[in-house]
Structures are given as structure tokens and as C-alpha cells.
Amino acid sequence: MAFSFTRMMSSRNTATLLASLGAGTMATCYLMTDSNILSAEERRKLYPPSADFPDLRRHNNCMAHALTPAIYGKLRDQVTPNNWTLDQCIQTGVDNPGHPFIKTVGMVAGDEESYKVFADLFDPVIKDRHNGYDPKTMKHPTDLDASKITNGVFDEKYVLSSRVRTGRSIRGLSLPPCCSRSERREVERVTVQALAGLKGDLAGHYYSLGDMTEKEQQQLIDDHFLFDKPVSPLLTCAFMARDWPDGRGLWHNNEKTFLIWVNEEDHTRVISMEKGGNMKRVFERFCRGLQQVEKLIQERGWEFMWNEHLGYILTCPSNLGTGLRAGVHVRLAKLSKDPRFGKILDNMRLQKRGTGGVDTATTGDTFDISNNDRLGKSEVELVQLLVDGVNYLIDCEKRLERGQDIKIPAPIAQFRK
Amino acid sequence: MPFGNTHNALKMKYASSEEYPDLSQHNNHMAKILTPAIYERLRSKQTPSGFTLDDVIQTGIDNPGHPFIMTVGCVAGDEETYEVFKELLDPIIEDRHGGYKPTDKHKTDLNPNNLKGGDDLDPNYVLSSRVRTGRSIRGFCLPPHCSRGERRAVEKMSVEALDSLSGDLKGKYYALKNMTDAEQQQLIDDHFLFDKPVSPLLLASGMARDWPDGRGIWHNDTKTFLVWVNEEDHLRVISMQKGGNMKEVFNRFCTGLTKIETLFKDKGTSFMWNGHLGYVLTCPSNLGTGLRAGVHVKIPNMSKHAKFEEVLKRLRLQKRGTGGVDTAAVGGTFDISNADRLGFSEVELVQMVVDGVKLLVEMEKKLEKGQSIDGIMPTQK
Prior knowledge:
The complex is a heterodimer of chains A (about 425) and B (about 375). With about 425 residues, chain A is α+β, with helices and mostly antiparallel strands.
């Protein structure tokens, strides 16, 4: 009895209290009830968007540069059909002010509709990240015809391995930051069922992360296939590691040249790879595999998330469009020490990474060289850019070996005016 | 997450069995208690502020076990969590707090005069003494669930209250995001600075969101009374000093807490408290008193003794490394504190520590002399 009396008394006081904190005059209306307990609706009104606006003064990511109090005020109380909010999209960018090697995006989508409901923030971020690409007016080309690639076989004295990756999302199911356990398991079911229909050189086997034997695990580690629970705060702060390892797994073909990650950072990540320099063959298998998987899921009434402005829809805005990263591990002992190396890469729209992936630094003279861009150019265009670029780098390396000089190539056109 | 029920309604279109987490590798209180039937009954519920069952248990799903301690595996997002999800939380509380029943009443006693002795622990062995607890401010969501606006409001209110403390409690607030390099270094040297949580137990529950916004440290000028704002709880209150005068530490603790509570009441709010659960905090393990009274004590001989664990158990004490809950002990110096939080009053718990540590030091001295400790083995408290 005494307990509820105290609560009644303090509710009136809470109104005064919260009003004095600048929580808004709305406070008094909503608290003149018996209960001190605020519903989510009431709480939202009590704390206007200005009270919740994140402190981004120390931040250096695309979201922090694009978000304004006006945009936040307009979008904070919106939800997607899956009840995903703006705060949930930007949490990773609020929690991670900056990254030592790359300018991060700082926001994720929880579902396909996020890109539309929160377009006022996603569009400027996409523009910033993808060289001025404007989702409102521009259209993204999709082209998975590998036969168009020319000069796609590299000198193996320099190129140690070739790889193409992308991601695909299953329309109708929420993305890794947002999905419930049952949705995630559904993504796994749909994908594994489809992959079971692959034949010939693409026939393979699925290994669920939670069920694999010690022996299978060791083999996958030795093959450099096994992915682990994300440790990068960029991913963990975006809620992508929830319920690990439930619903996660790895599929690969028997020849170990075509690999699919299920429910890591995207619904699926599709990777074609092999040792050596035959990027043309790697890309051919990539396109063939993707097209077959798409056909197999369509037979069961599913499809990939795609639209004509954003191309393939993935969790991170940086992977929109093609979601494609085509790259090689290449030995560039002399060129990498040349002061013009960075500029050459920039002009050819290429980036370098360590051979351990995005969060690593390089060791020795072997570099991971890949395309910078994802959106606004087709898969064929990007792979051709990579092919031409790597051939140029190898040519520079050979020239430097012979004591000849090299030239910085003219920059390739982007969208920015 | 704030305000929303994070698509709780959408999950309902899937059968409960399809949503049920895989807890086959798990060893925490939540995994022991949760069943598909309980999950089915509770999954459609939410607290008024929108905290759901999945929000409660996410940290326990993401953290199957801990090397040193049996973790709880769930958190509260607001005061009402303990009511709305009592079907799950009551058995967890009972399991964690030595059989505490849903009908039991918890007594609060913050009168330091009721503590007997405690001013004479041998400083040759007892290097430092410390008492900590937590407090939550009624009407605000807890760290796993609060919005930035709420967290800032908690900070503002707390700092206003702390700024009005006087005498030996007079002090200063250092907001984590505003502190200078010099201030930061000083707080590190004083062993006061808390950092962004790295423990996955905390990260998985959403407590580190928006770091360091709204977080800070307040301490008095003599550096013996310290308050953490918006770390794992709204407030963590710590009284500490070098040496073995636990009585003085507890005096200051009670005086400080009572003063702070009065200041909050003057502003028209109060701490979350009820007659069954005592002080309500984020983690069910800290309900009741939320009190951990402990010492850093040198017991290299005793700690190697075969009966060490048994003695601790009987005294209702626990050992930790001197770096805190997630560390191992170094060089024979242990952090020894009360194991209980709920069902005993503050005075009772500190009394257990005082009496227990006195006995441990006595045993250490005997072992140093090569004598047996069998004659002074304690009975189970």
C-alpha cells in the first residue's frame, strides 16, 4: 500500500522534475496519471529529438558528416515495416568515431525498406561514399556476363591469387543487424536448400558453424575458409553478432573455388577464388554460380533484394550496387616503395589492403589490390578496371626491375563534378 | 534499445519454437532456467517502455559461459522488467541468491553504528578496504535500454545532487568526454578511471552504446568517496581507502549514500527500491543491497591451502583477482569480498567480511608459523 502511495506522490513531482530538465512542457500532460511508469510512446514525447541527438563532434565517418539535427528530428520517430529505427541504423557510427585505415560509413540498414524510410540520411551518405552517386536520379547497371572480360589472366610471377566477392540478400527477410533468430534460420534454410541444387564443378557441401566437427573446423581453417565471430566493433555495435553461431555457416564446392558465407555480415557472401592469376576464370565461375543460385531460389518463390537505383541491397551502404570486390594478392616489391604508388592506385580507382583483409596492414611486399568502387558501375566494368589496373601495376613493377621509369596514369572518371 | 520494442510484434508471426535460442552449449543462470514453455508465455510481453524478453536474455545467449564465475545471463531494462518477466527472473533470483523466494522480504540497514569492530584489520596483511553498491533512479530506463536523452538526464540530475555535498564529501565531477589529458592521467593513477566496457557480458546487453556520452566520474577531494555515472548502472557508489579500517570506509559509505538519497528526494525522485527486491539494479546479481564489501589481502599461504575454498564458502566470501571480477589473483594478494547481495542487510554483509577477513589473517599467521588451522575452522554461516 505504502509503496503505491509513494509512486503516486512522486509522479507529480516527476513532472516538475522532468520539466526543469528541459524535457518539454508535454511532460506535465503525460504524467498527470496515477502511474509514474511511462510507456514508450510517452517517453518519446518527453524526450524530443534534440534531447537524443548524438554527440558527433569527435566523429569522422560518413554518417556523422551527413546527420543534422533537422534530419534526426524528422526521422527519429519513423519505423520501417519491420519496426527498425534510425537510432538502430546509426548506432554503429555513434559508437565508432573513426577507423585508423579507412573512413567508415557509420550506419547500416536493418531491412530493404531502411534505405527508403531513412533516405534523407542514407542518400547523402551514399553520395559521399560512392563518389557523388545520387540514388534519387541515377540508375545502377548490373552486368554479369564474364565473357566480356579481356586480358584477364595475370603474370603468375607476380599475382599469387585471384578472388571476387559480393553479397546477396534474400528479399522479405530482415538483414543481420535486425533479424530475429527465426528469420536468420530461414535465411540459412533458403540458402542451403538452393545451394544443394548446384551441380558439376559447383557441387558442394554446407558446414553449419554450430554443428561442425573438430576435424571439419580444422580443415576449414587450413583452407582459410572459416570465418569467426566478428570482433570488429564496427560490426558488433551494429548488432550483427547476436546469437552467434546460430544460423551461421559455410558452404563450399568440392574443388574449393566457390564459397558462400551464410549470415555473417550479410545474408550471403559469395566468393570465387583460386591460386594464381586467372581472374577471368574466377569471374566466370562467380557469374555462373550467382546466376544459378538466383535461379534456384526463384524456383522456390524467393528473390534477391535489388532495385534499379541501388542495385543489390546489402547491410552496409558501402556494398550497394554490385557489392563487388575483385582483388588479387600481388607482389610489388619495387613499386610499393615508390612514392608514386599511392597516386597510381588512386587514379586507377584501386585500393590496397594487407593480405589479412580490411583491418590489417601489409606485411612484406605482397599486397591485396582491389577495386575501390561498388555502385554506379557494373560488375563487368569493375572487374575490367581491376584487370587493367593490375596489369598496369605489374608493368610498372617490371619497368622498375629493368631500371626504367614509370608513369602515373590519368585518373579514371567518377561521378563527382 | 530505446523507445521501441524492436520488432517484437513481427517476431510473433514465427512460432515460438522457431525463435527459441539454442542454449545447448550454455552454462549461465538464464540458460538453466529458461524453457520453451516459459519463452512461449513471455515472448509477447513487453514492459511499458518497450523492453522485451529477447532484450532481457540477449547477453546470456551471446555469452555461453565465463571462465571464473557462473554468470546470470540476463539484465533488466527498467524497473518493471522484474515484474513483467518475473516468471523467468524469480527462479533465476532464487538460484543466484541462495534460495531467495518470491515471497521473501529484504531488509535494508545503512546504519553504520550497527557494525561491530572493523576498525582493526591488520594493515600488514590488509592493503586496502572498499565498499561499493549501485543505485538506479526511479522513472528512467536502465543502461541496456535508455536513450541518449535519458542517460544525459540521469547524469545531469546526479551531478546536481553530488555537487551539493559538503564537508569531507565535497568533490568534483569529471565527464568522460570532456576530461583533459591531465585529468585523465590523474584518474588513471588514482585507479579511479573506468573505461569503456570490454567484457562481452556488458557489450552484448547494449550497455556500452553511445560511449562516452553521459558517462563520468565524481570523487571527493580526499579521494575516498567515488561515484561512477552511467557505467553498468545509473550510479555506482564506492567508498575506499588504503589499510584495514573497514569501519571508517563503511561509515563514509552510509553517510554519503544517505545524503545523496536525501538530495534526490528533495528533487522529487527516489531510488528504485521495493520491499521484496531491495535496491533494483541492472543485473539481477546486484539486487538487494547491491553491496560488495571487500579487501585486498596478502594471504599467500592460506590461498595455497587445501581448505581455502571451503573456508571461503563457510564464511560466505568470494575471491577475485586484484584487477576485479574478470581477473586472476597475482602474487598471493586476493580481493576477498562478500558473496551475497540479497537477503542480508548491508550491515550484515559488511560484518561477514570484517569477521571473515579477520579469521583469514589469523589463519595466514598460523600457517606462517607452520601451525595448523584445523582448530579455528569456521562453521557454515
